[in-house]
Amino acid sequence: MSKRTRILSIPALVAIVGSLLLAACGGSSSSKAATPAPMPARSGTYAVGHDTISIPDPATGKTISADLWYPAGDGATGTPTRYSLLPTAYFDSKVAIEKAPINNAGSFPFVVYSHGSGGQSFVASFLTEDIASHGYVVLSANHAGNTAADQLLGTSVSEDQNDFLRPNVVEAEINWALAQSSGSASAYPVLKGAIDEKRIGLVGHSYGGYTALATVSGHTGPAGTTKPDPRIKAVVGQAPYTRRLSDSELSGIKIPVMLMVGTKDITTPLAKDSQRPFDLITGPPVVLAVMTDAAHQSFTDVCMYLDEIPKLPAAPAAVAAAIQVQAKEGCGEGFMPYERDLELASGLTVAFLDEFVAGTPNASWFSGKTATISAPDITISVKR
Fold first, then answer.
1. Is residue 365 in some structural domain?
2. CATH number for position 55
3. Which residues pair with 29 in a beta bridge?
4. What proportion of the chain, given as a percentage, has pLDDT over 70?
5. pLDDT at residue 13, as a whole number
6. How many domains is the chain partitioned into structurally?
7. CB-based contacts of 307: which residues, under 8 Å, 6+ apart?
8. What confidence category does residue 152 fall into, taking pLDDT thresholds of 50, 70 and 90?
9. Contact, 200 vs 110, CB < 8 A?
10. Between 180 and 43, whose confidence is greater?
């Protein structure tokens, strides 16, 4: 099958007004650009429930701590979820309701989110909540040995160990969730019948981008070999860290993949970590979304932490200082406005998942003929 590449730039108002301005192709060409549908709204139609759970990890014999988000029952009310960095450093969700009853509308598509190095399971709660509000069950584990707590405690593991452990954690998450849904396990009956095992997607930020891609490609390194997981239908990597994957591993990925990166990302820059996988992965499609003036933390809650955590009277100074260091790569003057970061990171991710995981396409820019749409803040290349 021949490959076609198309370049699209999405206007700054697409997520707000749901419209796109088509640019003229120049000259007297009669070719016409297809008009993409609006991106999904930041908040979907479902209320969102949340719970903190524990998952057994057969690979290590340890327990994995994780956050679970899911579509809640219509009209659900209750206590807002509190995400705690530490007991005195936290923020309360404006969306998720703690232990809300799950929606009984049927089985939902399932997404695993993987955090980056030095992160935590709820580091992109804006995104995991948004995905759940659009009708997905979302699970995000803490990658032991590679969390914020591990950095503070000096218990971080090597990259070689991370390369091996992370995909195994994703496999354990999927196995656990499907077992609860099928009824073959009863540790968490809330999920019984809630997950469609044929609709599974992965989303990851930074080292989580490696994790998502390595889960579908398989990876061999000094710590061991992980095998490809054929259950995954599509992957989204946000500011992905991919240099640990070989050319042959990347070229073996034959499912839809979207890579998102900011032009001001100096941790996982476009040239080093996104362009190569875009060129090598076969998909189809393979999507590369380049956000103008976005950076590494444009895909996380860090900029919100920067504003909210210092307001807490008992927040440790060390936590505030660590947040300020992270915030240097994405927050404030000179970077894409944070609200716009969230609109694009969430809107495009949900649109991609809807089309290639849920099977409910609503964004024609991922398929069809070559088209060009001009705008100042994002350029999307699609390879088919």
1. yes
2. 3.40.50.1820
3. none
4. 87
5. 30
6. 1
7. none
8. confident
9. yes
10. 180
